[in-house]
Request: fold
Amino acid sequence: MPRSVNAVASRERRKKVLKRAKGQFGRRKNVFTVAINSVEKGLGYAYRDRRTKKRNFRGLWIVRINAGVREHGMSYSVFIGKLAENNIVINRKTLADLAMNNPNAFKAIVEAVK
Reply:
């Protein structure tokens, strides 16, 4: 009896990997063995960077808040400390958005803290 190879599943598995490698440069996009490595590496980076993205955004918000607060003669650390002291609970994402897009509201918060 001849050996069954299940070509349908094999082809499907290869197509899935090559579809994920679409848009890459050189042999990465069309040679299965090279594409496997590239796709696995890319998935690892995607997993890692979903966590890194959160860190990067927090840093960006802190920079924006600091820039907004310094216009009113205060530093970021003093501002955050006084927010906690006055029991004002606003997260950094919201504060950064106010500092960028609504300076009057941000100024009101800074004045309330002072």
About this structure: The chain has one domain: 7-113. The helical segments are 7-20, 32-70, 76-85, 92-101, 103-113. Residues 36 and 63 are 40 Å apart (CA to CA). The chain has a mean pLDDT of 94.
